[in-house]
Structures are given as C-alpha cells and as structure tokens.
Specification:
- This protein is an alpha/beta fold.
- The longest helix is centred in the N-terminal third of the chain and has 32 residues, at about 135-165.
- It has helices at about 25-50, 55-60, 65-70, 80-105, 115-120, 135-165, 165-170, 180-190, 200-225, 235-245, 250-255, 265-270, 270-275, 275-305, 310-315, 320-355, 375-395, 395-425, 430-450, 460-490, 495-505, 525-535, 585-595, 620-635, 640, and strands at about 1-5, 365, 375, 505-515, 535-550, 560-565, 570-575, 605-615, 650-655.
- Strand 4 (about 505-515), helix 22 (about 525-535) and strand 5 (about 535-550) form a beta-alpha-beta unit.
- It has 2 domains: about 45-455, Amino acid/polyamine transporter I (Up-down Bundle), CATH 1.20.1740; about 490-655, no CATH class.
Length: about 650
C-alpha cells in the first residue's frame, strides 16, 4: 500500500543568514515598526473582547445587589449587612474572575482555543480504559458542564433583558404592565436577527459596552464621593462577620452574590476569538474597575437611602437621564445575550464534532470569521425557552433563583478538570496543584451550596435542562458506538475486498465513486450493497473517512492522508478539529492537489442511510434505543452537513438491528 500524502513542509525551508552587525539599525527599525503595528490590533481586540466577553458579567449590576436586599430571600438593610455583601462581591470578582479565570484558567489554551470541551481535550487519557473507570468520570463531568452552559444560555437573555426593561418601573409605575410584553418583543427580535449573523453588528458591541462601563463606573464614583467610607468593605473581615451574624440566611444571600460573577466562563470560552492578552487588558483596565465602582456606589446608596434597595442600580441614575439609561441598559443586555447565544451555537458545533450530538444545520454567517455561525434548531428552541421563562417567572427576582446553579456548577467542574490538567498534562506535583485548586473550589463549592438551597425557587429548572441534555449527549455517543460495533460485524476489511475485486475483475464504469465511511479500516456497507446488486464498479473508488480529533483546528499540512490500495481504490482520511466543519468537496480538491485525479463533474457520492430497528440485542436500555433512533431520524443529512452537492448523491438504504 502506497501513500500519496506528502510530508508537511517546514516553516523555513531555506536557512536564514544571520543579520550582519552593520544591519542592526535596520533590524531595530523593523522591530520597532512591527511593535507599533501590533498596538492598534491589540486595542481592536481589547475593544472586541470588552463587547463580547464581558457583556454578561457587565450587566450583572442590574440585578446582583438588588437580589441581596430585595429578592425572594432578601436580607435586612443594615450597615453590617451592606458592608458584608459588598465585601463578598469584591472578593468574588477578585478571586473567581481575576485570579482564577484571568490569572490561571486562560493559560489552559488548546492551540489558542478555550472552553470546557477544549479543556477536556487537553487532559491526557488512557484510551484503552476510556469506556470505564476514572477517565469516564472526567468525560461525564465535561459533558454535564457543557449541558449546564445550555441552561445558562436559556436564562441569560431572559434575565438580562427583563432586568434592563424593569428600569421603566422606576421611571413610572404606569409602565409596569408593559415590562413583560416589551421583554418578549425584544427577545423575539434578538433571536430573529440571529440568522443575519453578528459579523456586521459585532463592531458596534465594543463601543456600546465601553460606553456602558464608563457610565456605570461614573454613576458609582459619583455616589462614592459622598460616602467614601464604603470602600472599607474590601476588608474580608466584613464578609466573615456577615456569616457570623446571619448564619444560614447569610448562605442563602451568598446565592444572590454569585450573580456578580455570571459570565465568568465566557472569559475562557472566547479565548480563541480574542486571545488572552486582549481579554486580560479589557478586564483589568476597564471592566473590573467599572464594576467595583458601581457595586460600591450601590452599597453607599442603600446605606443612605434604604428605600431604594428595590432597584439600587437605577437609584444611582439621575431622573433626567433615566430613560436613556434604560435604553443603554437594554442594548447592553442584548449584547450580553448575543454573546451567550453565540457561545451556545459554538458549543453545539463542538459537541457535534466530538460525537456528543447528532448532525444539525450549521450556517456560517461570515466568510472571514470562522466562529460566526448560526444554528437554526438551537436558535428557535432557545427563543421559545427564553420567552417561556419570562412569561412563567414574571420578574427578574424569580429568574435569579434559577440562574445561580448553572453558573456555580460549571465553574466547579472547570476547576476539577483544571486540576487533572495540572497533574496529568502539565505534570504539576500535588503539593503545588492541590492548594491552588482547593482555593478555587472553596469559592465554587460555597457558591454552589448556597444555590442548592434555592432549588425549589427555580433552580430545579437549570438542573432539569442540564440532565436532559446530558442524557441526550450520552445516549447519542453510546448509540453511535453500539451502531458502529453492530455494523462492524457484517463488514469486511478493505484489503480482502480489493483483493477479491482484483481476482474477479468486474466491469468498471467511467468516473469516480466516493463512499463515506465511519471506520477507515473496513469496507462501507453502501459499497458492498452497490457491488452486490450492480455487479460493477467505477474506475476510481474513494473511501472517505472524516475523523474528529481532540484539537480545535487541524493544521492544513495535517488535514488529509491518502492511501492507495491498487485496482483504482484509494482511502482518504480527513481530520477536523472540534471547532471546524467538514467539507467533502474541499477534501477532494486537496486530494487533487496532492496528486489524486478527481473531476467534480464525473464524481458520484454514495451514502448509506441506516434504518434502525430497536428490537436487536444491545447493552442500551430500550427507551434509550428509541431516543437514539429518533435523534438519528431527525439528524441533518450527510449531504448538508458535509456540503456534498445534492445532484451528485446516491443513497442506499440499510436496515440495522440495534
């Protein structure tokens, strides 16, 4: 068996001569020019990161402090309680967002990409024991963490937009009846606009969020000028005294404090779009200071005017600019929602690539930005869920009870996965890794425990979403594995099949036949059925296998491997990362560049369409087999997902007992 794939080319094929001493000045000028050229790019990325990454955490001042003193489990407004809550807010933002995510988690980049799937892929695992034992627990934790992010994606648009529009009630009580309808209209327009993509409007996100942070920082600073003593809350002793004074009620309020760090996972998930440098600069220079100023300003306002605890954010706003502030807050909330919706789209694409979800329609809305995608099925499901939440819960305080569990559980899972990366991937000694992760988990588990106390108030909703999505993901993964094992029993290896063709010498017709196959080692059932009934073969037969790897993006030099078996048979193995979408015509074009003769006009694609019979023997429970069969029937066809020309496809039906 020969191979047509060429070796990857080196980055510098010709050795470079060292720079002579006399040219140091030119080199210095060149380096200086290059450094100056990087500054505008860094600033642009920083502004973009501000608009996309920090939309969620940036709009938390709309409801975080309010829930502590006016929510379903509000605590009395007193000097000790206000100072204690502000101390908790300060240290939560500092330790969870600044230290944990900005300082450490951002370092865990998978070839420039971030997110819980990227983190999971970084952890070395023994593939022989992946089906059981400790490795399975790590994988399940990653799946459940991703499922929790779907719950976060449902709640974030609902609570953000609803909290922003509730500012109208501060302006006039007559607007109270219009809050719910306006929220539903904004959400409907937001999800309807998703099909156009964010490429066109994305450039406006950064300036709007920059204006938002400047304004909320200025509002808070204005109040701090009158009450600077509130800054004493940075002393952690106030947080300790808060729990000593309020005991169990203090733990319940901690579940509301966690709302100030919602969106922290977006720091890591959007790593590939902006890079760690831009994310760190935008947080430390703009978002973090502005948030602290606003939170402390709200605390000072409540101490001075306890009656404004019902909505301290808008209490900071002068009445003359109240309506413009509601408009700005609504825009910021829409941007925060947009960032989370886009994140759910990307999460879905990654799950499909990793084999955790069936194929779905994925529309690329930008020819320049790889991450700009639109998933119609997910979009409309999210829209119905968000509007339904608003109608059922009715106000942001009730929604806040359902919000915290998804955030805190995901953060805890991220800390655990990060620990295994430290000791397995980066080979940190336990004495070094355990104290660091224990510090992270001290905050994560405290927040999660506090939110568990609010399960009956709405937290059950997020848990239910996560459990359902986890069941779907595990069922699809296990079903595909069972189906592959079942079909392997009826297949034959490629080499014996080619040998049989060489001996029988069947009639060969002009053109190229491409058979997609899951396994690169066995002959596709579609090929066996076609050969059995037609008794002919094409002059050139290509067995194409699309391989998903645990990397975000596969380098072009490693994309394709070509093996020649003789008798006109070739095997193509195309590798794609979980941030990429396979494209079969592009694979064939790449194969032609590597020496394999292909003509699109004379190429026919043969696909096997399996009809699953759930009565067969299997380790899966019967209800899971029915669920898998239903997902398989409703999955996007291979033609659409792999971008295969529909007029060049022949489908062959195959029945498989699962």
């Amino acid at each position: 068996m020969s191979s047509l794939s060429s070796a990857p080319t080196e980055g510098h094929s010709v050795s470079e001569e060292s720079n002579p001493a006399g040219s140091r000045g030119e080199a210095g000028v060149s380096d200086s020019t290059e450094a100056r050229s990087r500054i505008p790019k860094t600033l642009a990325l920083t502004l973009g990161a501000l608009g996309v990454v920090y939309g969620d955490v940036g709009t938390s001042p709309l409801y975080a402090v309010k829930e502590c003193f006016h929510g379903m489990h509000a605590i009395a407004v007193s000097h000790q309680n206000v100072m204690g809550v502000l101390s908790l807010v300060f240290w939560s933002l500092t330790m969870v967002v600044t230290v944990k995510y900005v300082g450490f988690i951002l370092r865990a980049d998978n070839k420039g990409e971030g997110g819980i799937y990227a983190l999971l892929a970084l952890i070395p695992m023994d593939r022989k024991t992946l089906a059981h034992g400790f490795n399975t627990g790590i994988v399940l934790a990653g799946i459940f963490g991703a499922a929790l992010l779907y719950g976060d994606g449902v709640i974030t648009p609902a609570i953000s937009v609803l909290s922003a529009i509730e500012g109208l009630e501060v302006a006039t009580k007559a607007a109270a009846s219009a809050v719910i309808p306006l929220t539903c209209i904004v959400l409907f327009l937001l999800f309807t606009a998703q099909r156009f993509g964010t490429a066109g409007i994305g450039r406006f996100f950064g300036p709007i969020l920059l204006a938002w942070f400047v304004v909320i920082g200025a509002l808070g600073a204005n109040e701090l000028i009158r009450s600077p003593q509130i800054l004493m809350a940075v002393n952690p002793a106030y947080a300790v005294d808060f729990f000593a004074l309020n005991k169990m009620h203090g733990m319940i309020v901690l579940g509301s404090v966690v709302l100030c760090i919602t969106g922290g996972e977006a720091l890591y998930a959007d790593l590939g779009h902006f890079g760690s440098k831009a994310i760190r600069i935008s947080w430390l220079a703009i978002a973090f200071p502005a948030l602290l100023l606003n939170y402390f300003g709200q605390g000072a306002l409540i101490l001075e005017n306890p009656e404004l605890a019902s909505n301290p954010f808008y209490g900071l706003v002068p009445r003359a600019i109240l309506y413009p502030m509601v408009a700005l807050a609504t825009m910021a909330a829409v941007i925060a929602s947009q960032a989370m919706i886009s994140g759910v789209f990307s999460l879905t694409q990654q799950a499909v690539q990793l084999g955790f979800l069936p194929r779905v329609q994925i529309v690329h809305t930008s020819g320049e930005t790889r991450g700009q995608i639109y998933v119609p099925q997910v979009n409309w499901t999210l829209m119905l869920a968000c509007i339904g939440l608003v109608l059922v819960f009715g106000n942001s305080s009730r929604l806040a009870a359902a919000y915290g569990i998804a955030v805190t559980a995901t953060m805890g899972i991220t800390s655990i996965l990060y620990f295994f990366l430290l000791i397995r991937g980066w080979k940190w000694p336990l004495w070094k890794a355990v104290p660091l992760v224990a510090l992270f988990l001290a905050f994560d588990l405290a927040f999660f425990g506090a939110n568990l106390l609010k399960v009956l108030d709405g937290g059950w909703f997020t848990i239910a979403i996560a459990i359902c999505i986890t069941i779907v993901m595990i069922t699809w993964r296990d079903g595909r594995a069972a189906l592959a094992r079942r079909m392997l029993q009826t297949r034959m290896m490629i080499e014996p099949f080619v040998k049989d063709v060489a001996e029988r010498l069947p009639h060969r017709v002009p053109g190229t036949a491409v058979f997609l196959t899951v396994s690169a080692e066995v002959t596709p059932l579609a090929l066996l059925h076609f050969y059995k009934h037609a008794h002919v073969l094409h002059e050139q037969v290509i067995l194409l296998s699309i391989k998903s790897v645990d990397e975000p993006v596969v380098p072009a030099a490693e994309r394709l491997r070509i093996d020649e078996f003789g008798c006109g048979f070739y095997r193509l193995i195309a590798s794609y990362g979980f941030m990429e979408r396979p494209n079969v015509p592009v694979v064939l074009q790449l194969a032609s560049e590597k020496g394999l003769r292909t003509q699109p006009a004379s190429t026919t694609y043969f696909l096997g369409r399996e009809t699953l019979l759930t009565s067969g023997p299997s380790e899966m429970m019967h209800w899971r087999k029915n669920l898998f069969a239903a997902m398989s029937r409703n999955a996007q066809s291979a033609m659409g997902y792999f971008n295969i020309p529909v007029d060049r496809v022949v489908e062959l039906g195959i029945q498989v007992a699962l």
